[in-house]
TrEMBL record:
Gene3D superfamilies: Isopropylmalate Dehydrogenase
Record bears the keyword Cell membrane: no
A Gene Ontology biological process term: pyridoxine biosynthetic process
Gene Ontology terms for molecular function: 4-hydroxythreonine-4-phosphate dehydrogenase activity; cobalt ion binding; magnesium ion binding; NAD binding; zinc ion binding
Cofactor binding summary note: Binds 1 divalent metal cation per subunit. Can use ions such as Zn(2+), Mg(2+) or Co(2+).
EC code(s) of this entry: 1.1.1.262
Originating species: Paracoccus isoporae
Domain of life, source organism: Bacteria
Magnesium as UniProt keyword: yes
UniProt protein name: 4-hydroxythreonine-4-phosphate dehydrogenase
Main location, first listed in the record: cytoplasm
Annotated residues for binding of substrate: 123-124, 265, 274, 283
Reactions performed catalytically: 4-(phosphooxy)-L-threonine + NAD(+) = 3-amino-2-oxopropyl phosphate + CO2 + NADH
Length: 322
C-alpha cells in the first residue's frame, strides 16, 4: 500500500473539517489529522495509529486532541496551538517516511497569532521553517482546464507599490530555478517549458511603459536560456494566458500576486490547487480560505480540496518514481 497523504485539519472554526468526509472522492490513500470532535455530526471515522494500516471504510483519523470544541465561524484562541501542532506533526511524519505528503486545509493567521503567537506570514513560510529554511515558491495550478494553467508569482502578499523594488534579479532567478526543479521532480517533465511575464503593461513596450524588462529582465531570461533552460520572456501578461498561448509553456513565472492568480482563478476557480515548490516533501492545499461566513452551513464546495488531495497523490507518486 502506498504511503498516505496527511490531510491537516486547518482552522476548526472554518470549513476544513466539514470537507473531510468528501475527500474519499479523490481516490488517494489519506489520513485526516485533527480532533474528531470537530468533524461534522454523523461522520464515520476510525482512529489509526499505524499509517501503513488504514481502514477499508470510513474516514481514517490520526487523532490530535484540541483544547476546545469548534464553533463554526468563530475561531477559539484556545485551539490555535493545536492547529500549529498538527502541521508540525504532519511534517515530522513526512520527513520520517511514514507519509508521502501533506494536504493542508486552510488556517486563519490572525487566530493563530492571537491564540499562540504564530510568527509566520502563513502556511508556506511555516512549512519552509519546519523544513530547515527551504527556499520555496508558491504555485497555483489548475486541474480542470486544458492546456493547464500553472502560475508562480515571484512576489506574493505585498502592496502593488512595493513590487518594483521587491522584484530583484536575484528573486526572479531563484523563483525560476525553484519552478524548473519542481516541474522536473514533482510534475515529471524532464525539460519544462517556462514563460516569464513582464512587470509592466505590454512587457514595457520597448521602454515606453516601464524599463525593468529592458534594463534587466530580458538579460536574465537570455542568460538562463544560454544555460540550456527552455524559457521565454518577458512576455506581455495580457496575451499569455489564453489556450493557444498556454500550450507553449508548462509553467509561468509572474511578477506579482494578481498577475498570476487572476487568470488561474478565472480559468479554474473550483479546481485550483496551491502547491508549495521547493520543500523536501509534497505539500498542496485548496485554493480557498476558511470561509467563516458559510462554515457549518453545509454550503462548502469540496472540489478544490478534492483536487488538492488528488494532486498531492500525483506529485508524491512522481517523486517516488524518481
Amino acid at each position: 500500500m502506498p504511503r498516505p497523504i496527511i490531510v491537516t485539519c486547518g482552522e476548526p472554526a472554518g470549513i476544513g473539517p466539514e470537507l473531510a468526509p468528501a475527500l474519499h472522492r479523490a481516490a488517494v490513500p489519506f489520513v485526516w489529522m485533527g480532533d474528531p470532535r470537530h468533524l461534522p455530526d454523523g461522520t464515520a471515522w476510525t482512529e489509526v495509529t499505524d499509517l501503513a494500516q488504514l481502514p477499508a471504510d470510513g474516514l481514517a483519523v490520526l487523532r490530535h486532541d484540541f483544547a476546545a470544541p469548534a464553533r463554526p465561524g468563530t475561531p477559539d484562541p484556545a485551539n490555535a496551538a493545536g492547529v500549529i501542532e498538527v502541521i508540525a506533526r504532519a511534517v515530522t511524519l513526512c520527513r520520517d517516511g511514514a507519509a508521502s505528503g501533506i494536504c493542508t486545509m486552510p488556517i486563519h493567521k490572525k487566530a493563530l497569532k492571537d491564540g499562540a503567537g504564530f510568527a509566520f506570514p502563513g502556511h508556506t513560510e511555516f512549512l519552509a521553517h519546519l523544513a530547515g529554511g527551504a527556499d520555496v515558491a508558491m504555485m497555483l495550478a489548475s486541474t480542470t482546464v486544458d492546456p493547464p494553467c500553472r502560475v508562480v508569482p515571484a512576489t506574493i502578499h505585498i502592496a502593488l507599490s512595493d513590487v518594483p523594488r521587491t522584484l530583484t534579479p536575484d528573486l526572479l532567478e531563484r523563483t525560476i530555478r525553484i519552478t524548473r526543479a519542481a516541474m522536473i521532480r514533482d510534475f515529471g517533465l524532464p525539460a519544462p517549458r517556462l514563460a516569464v511575464a513582464g512587470l509592466n503593461p505590454h512587457a514595457g513596450e520597448g521602454g515606453a511603459m516601464g524599463r525593468e524588462e529592458q534594463d534587466w529582465i530580458s538579460d536574465l531570461v537570455a542568460r538562463l536560456r544560454d544555460e540550456g533552460l527552455d524559457i521565454s520572456g518577458p512576455l506581455p501578461a495580457d496575451t499569455m494566458f489564453h489556450a493557444p498561448a498556454r500550450a507553449r509553456w508548462d509553467a509561468a513565472i509572474c511578477a506579482y500576486h494578481d498577475q498570476a492568480l487572476i487568470p488561474m482563478k478565472t480559468l479554474d476557480f473550483s479546481g485550483g490547487v496551491n502547491v508549495t515548490l521547493g520543500l523536501p516533501f509534497v505539500r498542496t492545499s485548496p485554493d480557498h480560505g476558511t470561509a467563516f461566513d458559510i462554515a457549518g452551513t453545509g454550503q462548502a464546495d469540496p472540489d478544490s480540496a478534492i483536487a488538492a488531495l488528488r494532486m498531492a497523490g500525483q506529485l508524491a507518486r512522481a517523486r517516488q518514481a524518481q
